[in-house]
Amino acid sequence: MSDVYFYHLTRSALDAALRQLLERALGRGWRVVVRGQDAARLDWLDEKLWLQPDAGFLPHGRAGGPHDADQPILLTTGASMPDGTGCLMAIDGADVAPEEVARLQRVCIFFDGTDSAAVARARDQWRGLTRAGIAAQYWSEESGSWVKKAETGGG
Questions:
Q1: What pTM, to 2 d.p., does this model score?
Q2: How far apart are CA 146 and CA 86, in angstroms?
Q3: For residue 105, what are the β-bridge partners?
Q4: Which residues lie across from 148 on neighbouring strands?
Q5: What per-residue confidence (pLDDT) applies to 30?
Q6: Residues 122, 93: Cα–Cα separation, whole Å
Q7: What's the 3-state SS for the chain?
Q8: Which of 6, 13, 131, 142 is most deeply buried (CB count within 10 A of its CB)?
Q9: Which domains occur in the chain, in start order?
């Protein structure tokens, strides 16, 4: 079973923090699903991942095409994941079910620390997942670099 990592964004923009962890996940050989709740927000992220030549290209695609299973990074609002997905990255309060965690190498949940509703949603997700016996880590960047602030072993 995978751990769930919660990333409390206070300094970095979502696209910058996500890019950093997407690069690491691809470096481990994982296929990644980025799950959001809003198609327009995923359009924005899709554009950010394509149009940042100084940051390097991250191969990805939007869900709903004939080659979803071949995408190294798949952006979706849906709950399904292609076979071989190793990592789920949830943004903007997207749902993560405990039974999904068992099939993955890693789950990352990003939330905006300046948005009280996003913080409350992340707390609810933490409680729900850890009550289901899933190990979780909470990472904050408030000091300028990522620091693990809390950890639970699950179960």
A1: 0.92
A2: 22
A3: none
A4: 139
A5: 94
A6: 7
A7: CCEEEEEEECCCCHHHHHHHHHHHHHHCCCEEEEECCCHHHHHHHHHHHHCCHHHCCCCCEECCCCCHHHCCEEEECCCCCCCCEEEEEECCCCCCCHHHHCCCCEEEEEEECCCHHHHHHHHHHHHHHHHCCCCEEEEECCCCCCEEEEEECCC
A8: 6
A9: 3-152 (3.40.50.10110)
- Assigned token pair, 32: 């990644």
Decide if 3 contacts 104 (C-beta within 8 A). Answer: no
Q: Check if the beta carbon of residue 105 is closer than 8 Å to that of residue 32.
A: no
Amino acid at 51: L
Asked whether residue 69 carries a pLDDT value surpassing 90, the answer given is no
Q: Which residues contact 64 (CB under 8 A, 6 or more apart)?
A: 76
Sign of the CA dihedral with 2 first, then 110, 78, and 47 last = negative
| Residue 40: band (very low, low, confident or very high) from pLDDT cuts 50, 70, 90 | very high
